[in-house]
Each structure stands twice: as structure tokens, then as C-alpha cells.
Specification:
Strand order of the largest sheet: 3-2-1-4-7-5-8
Number of helices: 8
Number of strands: 9
CATH class: Alpha Beta
Helix content: 25-40%
Radius of gyration: 17 Å
Distance between the termini: 29 Å
Oligomer: single chain
């Protein structure tokens, strides 16, 4: 039987935490012939996010709440979630953001690819059937150009390299020595995947803009941020390999 965990990091997500848990757990409960769990990582929130998650846990048997005592960053929360999924014996970790700009209704499409045994499954906005709704045009243009460059440099069958909605085998994730604590961990993870994974697949999805009632995104469109993203496909293009242990 397939076993997978959805990993959702949260930091100061009090307005949307309950909706996120309710929607994802509802989808998971309807997936047949699979053992699944939602792992939420409360990354040192200073609002009531942790309290809300703890209150919801008794209501949702497929919810597991993990707390960081202090904010460690998006990347650190993802690593904690992946490690938790691996220790619990799950085959895959499926990463999502708590703002649900990628919809939980797409989870079963990931499950189909997991059942096929694909190592790395990425959502895509930029392949046929994928699209972006409600996102400012300048952000879409920057993302499209950056992903085109990254896709060419990585030389992988992935067109939307920066998409954070993805599933990876936990055995592959635990072989990575990831160090990024912020959003560039998505590219660092794909860089390692190029050398550790054998099969890749993309799922066209619709990305929507973050709801105005939620905390504004902490992502910044700055040159230093772009370098943090692009250095990984550049390393792959130049043949610089990650320090993979063969022991």
C-alpha cells in the first residue's frame, strides 16, 4: 500500500491555518488504498498558529503537528517535515504551502504518479494545462524567464523548477545534505535530485495569488535572491556535483 505524507510549513498563519488543515485532510481522507498524513510544521509562530493546530489535532486523525520552538525558516521546516515523514515510514513527502495557492484537489494527481513509482513529481504552471491566475504580471514574467533559464541549465524534464508544490521519495530526500533555510531550498533540492533521482514527472496545475486576508509573503524579488536560486542550475550546468555519500 502506498504511504505518503503532505508536509506543510506554517509561520504566523493564524487566519488560514484551520482552512488549510480542513481542506487537505478532507482530500486525504477520500483517497483509497493509501495511508496518508498531513504533517504541519509550526515554525516558531508568534501568533496563535500553534495553538490552532494543536486544537485541530484531535479532530483530524490524519493530522500530525510538529513545533519548532523558534523560527528557523522555510527550508528548515521542510527538512523537519521530510525527516518526520521518513521516520514514520512514508514512501513520499508531498510539499505544499499553507496559503493553498496550489489547491489540495490536485493531490490525487500526485498520488497517481506515486503509484507509478516516479521519484520526483513537480507541479507546473508552464506546461500545457498549467496556468497562473491573479498573480501580478511582473511576477509572472520574472518567474517564466527564470524557470526557462533554470530548465535549460538543469537539463531535466522539468519546466517549472521553482514550484514548491512537489513530491519526492523520502529515501531520496534523506540522502540530500540540504542547507538552505529559505525558499531557495526548492532549487537546492532539485539540484540534488538531478544526481539522486532516476525518474521525473510534471503535473499541470493552476497557481492563484495569496489571499489578502493572510500574512503577506516573505519572498522578495531582489538580485541577491535570484542568485540564491540560479546558482544551483549553474552548478549543474558546469558539472559541479553535490557531495553525495556512497557509504
Amino acid at each position: 500500500m502506498l504511504k505518503f505524507a503532505v508536509v506543510v510549513p506554517m509561520f504566523n498563519e493564524e487566519p488560514g491555518a484551520e482552512n488549510c488543515v480542513t481542506q487537505i485532510c478532507g482530500v486525504l481522507s477520500a483517497i483509497p488504498d493509501a495511508e496518508s498524513k498531513l504533517i504541519t510544521v509550526n515554525d516558531g509562530s508568534r501568533d496563535r498558529t500553534g495553538e490552532i493546530l494543536d486544537r485541530l489535532a484531535p479532530r483530524f486523525p490524519n493530522l500530525l503537528v510538529v513545533h519548532h520552538p523558534h523560527n528557523q525558516g522555510y527550508g528548515a521546516a521542510l527538512r523537519t517535515g521530510a525527516q518526520t515523514a521518513d521516520r514514520a515510514g512514508f514512501d513520499y513527502a508531498l510539499f505544499m504551502d499553507s496559503d493553498l495557492t496550489n489547491h489540495p484537489s490536485d493531490i490525487p494527481r500526485f498520488v497517481d504518479k506515486m503509484r507509478e513509482g516516479v521519484d520526483v513529481i513537480k507541479a507546473t504552471r508552464y506546461s500545457k494545462g498549467g496556468r497562473v491566475e491573479g498573480v501580478p504580471l511582473y511576477r509572472v514574467l520574472i518567474s517564466r524567464v527564470g524557470n526557462l533559464v533554470a530548465s535549460v541549465l538543469f537539463a531535466l524534464p522539468i519546466r517549472d523548477c521553482t514550484n514548491g508544490f512537489r513530491a519526492v521519495r523520502t529515501g531520496i530526500l534523506t540522502s540530500m545534505r540540504l542547507g538552505e533555510n529559505r525558499f531557495p531550498i526548492i532549487m537546492e533540492e532539485l539540484y540534488w535530485s538531478k544526481y539522486l533521482a532516476r525518474t521525473f514527472a510534471e503535473i499541470p496545475v493552476t497557481l492563484t495569488n495569496r489571499d489578502a486576508s493572510l500574512r503577506p509573503t516573505s519572498f522578495a524579488y531582489k538580485p541577491s535572491v535570484f542568485w540564491q536560486y540560479l546558482k544551483y542550475p549553474l552548478w549543474a550546468f558546469t558539472g559541479k556535483r553535490p557531495p553525495i555519500s556512497h557509504t
